[in-house]
Amino acid sequence: MQGTMKLGLLLTAGCAPALAWAQDAVPTNVQTGGTEATSTGADEGTIGDIVVTAQKRAENVQDIPLAITAIQGDTLQQRQVTAVDQLTTIAPSVNFGTYGGAARIAIRGIGFDIPDPGSEGRVAYHLDGVYISRPAAQLGTFFDVDRVEVLRGPQGTLYGRNATGGSINVISRAPTDGLSGYLNLTIGNYGRVATEGAISGSLSDDVAARLAVMSNNRGGYGKNEYTGNDIDDANQRGARASVRIEPANDLTIDLSADSYRENDHAYGIHYFGQYSPDIPLRGAVLGGTTSSKLRNIRSDFDPTNRRELYGLAGTLTWDLGPATLKSISAYRHSEFRDVTDIDMTERPLSQFIFFERARQYSQELQLSGSFGNSNWLIGGYYFDEKILGSAQAARNLLVNGGADRLVNGFKVEGRLGTKATAVFGQLDLAVSDAFKVILGARYNHEKHSINDIFQLDFVRDYAPNAPLVPMPGFPRQDEVTDNAFTPKAGFELKLNDDALIYGTVSRAFKSGGYNLGVNVPAFSPEKIWAYEAGLKLTTADRRLRANIAGFYYDYSNLQLAKVVNNSVVTENAGAAILYGGEAELTFLPFNGLQLDGVLSVMHSEYRDYSSVDPGRPALGLQNLEGNSLVQAPDVTLTAGAQYSFAGLGGEIKLRGELNYRSKVYFTAFNVDSIAEPRNTKFNAFLTWTSDDGHVSATVFGRNLTDKITKTGGIVNSASFGTPLSGSISPPRTFGVTVGYNF
Prior knowledge:
Blueprint: H1 2-13, E1 51-52, E2 59-60, E3 67-72, H2 73-78, E4 94-99, E5 102-107, E6 110-111, E7 123-127, E8 130-131, E9 145-152, E10 166-172, E11 180-188, E12 192-202, E13 207-218, E14 222-223, E15 230-231, E16 234-248, E17 251-264, E18 270-274, H3 282-285, E19 304-319, E20 323-340, E21 350-371, E22 374-396, E23 406-430, E24 435-461, E25 476-485, E26 488-496, E27 499-510, E28 526-538, E29 544-556, E30 559-564, E31 567-572, E32 575-590, E33 593-608, E34 610-612, E35 621-623, E36 635-647, E37 650-661, E38 664-665, E39 675-676, E40 679-690, E41 695-702, E42 710-715, E43 723-728, E44 733-741
Parallel strand pairs: 7-10
Antiparallel strand pairs: 1-2, 3-9, 4-5, 5-6, 7-8, 9-10, 11-12, 11-44, 12-13, 13-16, 14-15, 16-17, 17-19, 18-43, 19-20, 20-21, 21-22, 22-23, 23-24, 24-25, 24-26, 26-27, 27-28, 28-29, 29-32, 30-31, 32-33, 33-36, 34-35, 36-37, 37-40, 38-39, 40-41, 41-44, 42-43
């Protein structure tokens, strides 16, 4: 009773901004994928396992016939993985970028490259089992994390829509029965001050609760050379409350609510140079200048980033004896507005304003069970999303030789809707104690709708809420229906308790849809056939673990986007292939030392695709067969070494990392000026943890050589001179994190 009263008082105090919080007990075993050697106990010097729910049931990650990397929260904390973009340093074949504040996650060369309101990615992102559709809403969920599961390869059967690249599952920490807590404080360069923590415990015999909060404040990584103000700074706040109710031994109800806000000058686009040498930068012609450094911008106004996300979710798990019924119900809301300069100079020629407000409802039902060593699952899914989006380039008439004033210019605005339903199932049939046959299928039905308007207004002065004057063909109303069947078949063979061989063939699809303000028929869904085989091996002494996978993709009807004039236009390419191999290795040569690495080697090419480059139209229709896919580096490598030893009344861990990535193209035309060359980065970490596990401190440094790399880019409109613009990675960052756990 006393503990319950304490928790109630702490939860009440937790509504204040400077709340102190809590953490589950630090796991004592190691996990695969970001594994970490145990240094105490009977299992000292061995590699442990982690239980995941990637196949919608709890199982050892080493027993799953999938290419999957799982990382627990304490490992993420020690390696300063504080956002989804930093997963590139842990999981093979993962590439990440941003443009305009939207997450551009790619796995094995398949990701998000359509910078348009209402667009969707190819990697299904989930928070506690709930699919988050909006790429811009995926950046604010990464705190108080229990573990992250990165599923590589198409997941069309159990995950369905928009999982052609794979799935990222973020699982937050659940409420605990006992009173516990943690508080982490990070101080870093660029004036960074960040806090994160949670408090958890019982409210009654049947009810436990958890409250987690985070804040991150940082000065800018760059400057607006014209105004002198910071850009690419951070002002972020987040909170999540969860309650677990167990009214009976066979029934569990999990309820959660989360929110996140940003209000800063992040995501302004940077100038990379000119795409077409024969088309001068319009701002420079009119007397403007570009930034002197890649990390800076030069603009007549500072970029702004405003976003607000929140969600509600309820999960019911009912043990029926021979089967388990699970229901996942969720509502999510996101709204963001970014304003940036696209003429790349301080001349007052343009403001690009991107706005998106979305709400989604989803409902998933699962019925699962087992017989003998066999497992089965059947389910149904419903998804309903409505989006209000707009993109506007308010212009100065100097562009057209007119008066020096800003006019409404180009603007598209509209409402997009998606309703999706699916039924699915999978059977892992045990033919013998060692051999299983995998059979699965999903049937997907989707309806997409649009009601939009497009204007070119060079007469009226710019006004944020000016009524739109439609061009011919608008307003437009249209809808399209898509159906997709995504089966899966395969096998798994256990050579022994520590060795698994598997092979699968599966199909997945990405939804079709519309581009706002482009009066053409809807673009079609893209589909992929994936063939994969792998080996998961742990030696008997549990000092070496090797997970190896090879894959081949037959990819058809690809959706590829480009900027034509001021509009984003998506077209369907004919076909592409991708194939390659991956390896995740962890080796403990002796107690205290851990060597680990993840390697991906891949080849990608378009097989049937011709297109006109809007930035170089004089070249006409180009045959792009043989070109590499966007966001598809041939080689990625992370190699790490970690040494642990006793000292200063606790355990000290010293870790160093190398991250290598080969060239990445940002458009299908494979032009070097809109690509990121191969690069290598280095990270280092020094962590001390007290013997009782209550106190910890980590000194960290990321990107130690201060390498500047581009993370995404596009060719902008010819009316501004086809400037190349995009986002860049953080500079060298360092600091210290101090934590207290109770």
